[in-house]
Each structure stands twice: as structure tokens, then as C-alpha cells.
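Case study 2.
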Amino acid sequence: MATKGADAGADTRTDARADTRAALEGTRIKWDDTGMKSSYANVCNVTSTREEVVLLFGMNQAWNRGQKEVTIHLTDRIVVSPYAAKRLSMLLQGVVTEYEKRFGTLNIDLPGGDAKK
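Prediction:
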């Protein structure tokens, strides 16, 4: 009798794993943007620890190039795991690659970041 119960437990775990796998493979993602806000940033800084990557976004509103000190108004902080940061990096690389195919190479070494065509 004990063997029969153990077999039933194993079958239940196997069925649960199969159900989970099927659910994940057929999962549809619905984006809920009702609470979303849009922000513009022309400055981004990134710091990290072993457990998280922190992205800081803000605005440089200084128009004079010769200033000795510039204040950046930070507007958003996004904290992600290193795994999410790596996926974000891959997504951004793909977007930039596609952009450069359409519009020309982005040369970030030039003042102003002018694109070469």
C-alpha cells in the first residue's frame, strides 16, 4: 500500500511539471500600460553590485560647454537583476544594429554624436 502512495506522488509531480511546462510554452504576454509614464533622458549612468544593476536617468540642461561644473537632474532609477541587465544589453544591441542598418553608423566618438552615412 505504501508503494502505491509513493507512485501516486511521483505521478502527481510529473503531471505538475508537465502542466507547468505546457503553461509556460503557451503563455501569452499582455502589456498593461495604464500606469506607465514616459520620460526623456539625455544622460544615463550605471552602477552595480553582485545582486543588482542600477540605471540612473536624467537631464543635462547645461547649454554652455565651458562650464566647470554641471548639475544633472536625475529623474528615474531602474533597478534590475544582472540577468535582466544582460537581456537588456542584448535587446539594446539588436535595436542599435537595426537602427544603423537603416540610418547609418552612429559614431559616438564625434562631438554631438553625429552619424556617419
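The first helix runs from residue 2 to 25.
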